[in-house]
Amino acid sequence: MSFRIIGTGMYVPPKVVTNDDLSHIVETNDEWITKRVGIKERHVSENEFTSEMGAKAAQAALDDAGVKAEELDLILAATVSGETVSPSMACMLQNRLGATCPAMELNAACAAFLYLLETAAAYFALHKEYKRILVVGCERMSAILDWTDRSTCVIFGDGSGAAVLERGDGYLDSVLTVKGGDDVIKIPHFVGTSPFFNREQDTPYIHMKGQETFKYAVNAISTDITTLLERNNLTMDDIAWIVPHQANARIIDFACHRLNISTDKMFVNIEKYGNTSSASVPMALHELKESGKLKRGDKIILCAFGGGLSNMACLIEY
Description:
It is a single chain. By secondary structure, the chain is α/β, with parallel strands linked by helices. It folds into two domains: about 1-170, Thiolase/Chalcone synthase (Peroxisomal Thiolase, Chain A, domain 1), CATH 3.40.47; about 175-315, Peroxisomal Thiolase, Chain A, domain 1. The chain has ten helices and 13 strands. It has helices spanning about 20, 30-35, 50-65, 90-95, 110-125, 150-155, 210-230, 250-260, 270-275, 280-290; strands at about 1-10, 15-20, 40-45, 75-80, 105, 130-140, 160-170, 170-180, 185, 205-210, 240-245, 300-305, 310-315. The strands form four sheets. The chain has a five-stranded mixed beta sheet with strand order 1-7-6-4-5, sandwiched between helices. A four-stranded mixed beta sheet has the order 8-13-12-11, with helices on both faces. A two-stranded antiparallel sheet has the order 2-3. Helix 3 crosses helix 4 and helix 7 (about 210-230) crosses helix 8. The longest helix has 22 residues, at about 210-230. The radius of gyration is 19 Å and the shape is globular.
């Protein structure tokens, strides 16, 4: 027994920053950004912390599911850009929503929302009394960007996405991979002021090796999807939609070429939001559902990759 998705929600802050806006901050332009990553604009928080955005997406998902916060059995959250190390984002969301259930945070960077789904499936299996679990990915990536680095500041945006899960049979299979200890994508912690520590430390912003990230991501998407199809005796014709992490439109295009499928099979909204890390997949899933193109009974694949390095894909019957 696993779960089915009964509600989704998302939230982005109202401030929109276009590529032309960024051209006044760093040496770049709309053509360069669009061609390189497929992003036209992103939403950036002016006065909201990560937990506030996460709570709004979570409440939207609860409303969509017709579930009250006090009816939740567990809250699972993910972020790399929370305003505090402790309390965790999950604990802050529990408080903001007025829930009383246990809450736990997980860090797998951009792949984290999928790891939350895997964790939720395990909790449903272990705790037979659990009926509903809330999963939330929320990010204020603008807080951890070096706004003088055009290779990263043009890519990311702020936002949050959530889903309410109910005990059921919709979570069919998953594949998880971690290549730990790599510095291809990393976000160092704050330097601190210890008078005893004498090693040089990186600045606490996103550091990313673009070409290595690109190669890893294309391979991760194509390998994980192929594994799920083969293991479940499915073909791409059996899959209604693939919802990938929205990191780079070219990554998605290259993965489609590797898989020999049309890009029409992929749901893509990166041009509006940029890379919102753990919020990316649930935001895309919510927009796909709201578009009316996702039907009950459809088989879909969610896939993501990110820092760790970590990647995951899961097969879901919606």
